[in-house]
Write a structure and sequence with these properties.
single chain; 262 residues; alpha/beta; 8 strands
């Protein structure tokens, strides 16, 4: 089993698909994500009242079933990012990155020397708590741990090239919902300005050997288009949205069946 299945898929030139987790609080969601074809879970500490202990428990379950556990923290300088990585996560999402300086600070927290300054521990969940020599552990975890910088504002898009150039940044991920809000066009997915922003991020990621990401826009046709153009990190939807959609579909179909029978 790959140490980071989502990263392995992206390195193979394919798109890794992730489920955003805001509602679930147990490891079952990692198994459900895997069973439904997802490569990673995106545990959203930024927008959900999820504790570090819960994020760790879900991360450990994900590691055990071949799904990459990734956690979105609160800011580029959130020191909890290193603790979450020590507790089992194999990726950190940094929201609202607007400069290379912010990206470098995130690298400093999340990557070991020489890339960053992450504190060295032992007994890492990624290795099944097996003893691994410190130099090998640091090198392997630097290679296998994803650092995803989200660009979600006009300023972030303008500085995407310098953000992608920072050593240790693996993914530049366009957060379409917040970007559209910043552009004064909330909810207007598919607007030419956000399309141009995505094309720009794909180009700078290709130039710097990084992966481009797409979040917020749930339209399958647009998602497929950008995957064809080079996006490799994609969030499909939230656990809340999946639950609501299927619950609504089921109750509606049952009410229709009841009415037909009557």
């Amino acid at each position: 089993m790959a140490l980071n299945p989502a990263l392995a898929r992206m390195r193979a030139g394919e798109a890794a698909l992730g489920m955003i987790v805001r509602l679930a609080r147990t490891g079952d969601i990692a198994m459900i994500a895997g069973a439904s074809g997802h490569d990673f879970v995106f545990l959203d500490i930024q927008h959900a009242a999820m504790s570090l202990e819960t994020a760790s428990a879900i991360s450990l379950a994900a590691l055990g079933c071949g799904v990459t556990p990734i956690v979105r923290v609160r800011a580029f300088d959130d020191l909890d990012a290193a603790r979450i990585l020590d507790a089992g996560a194999m990726g950190i999402v940094i929201p609202d990155v607007e400069s290379a300086a912010q990206a470098r600070r995130a690298v400093e927290i999340c990557k070991f020397a020489p890339l960053g300054a992450r504190s060295v521990s032992a007994g890492y969940p990624a290795f099944g708590y097996r003893a691994v020599p410190a130099p090998e552990a640091a090198r392997t975890l630097n290679e296998e741990t994803l650092l995803i910088c989200m660009v979600e504002t006009r300023k972030g898009i303008e500085h995407a090239d310098e953000i992608a150039a920072v050593p240790g940044v693996d993914v530049v991920h366009v957060g379409c919902s917040d970007l559209l809000s910043d552009l004064g066009k909330p909810g207007q997915y598919g607007d030419p300005e956000v399309i141009a922003a995505l094309e720009h991020v794909i180009a700078v990621c290709r130039r710097h050997g990084k992966f481009a990401g797409l979040g917020g826009d749930r339209d399958p046709a647009r998602q497929a288009r950008f995957i064809r153009e080079g996006v490799r990190f994609v969030t499909t939807n939230t656990d809340v949205a999946f639950l609501s959609a299927e619950a609504s579909r089921r109750t509606e179909s049952l009410r229709q069946a009841i009415a037909k029978a009557a």
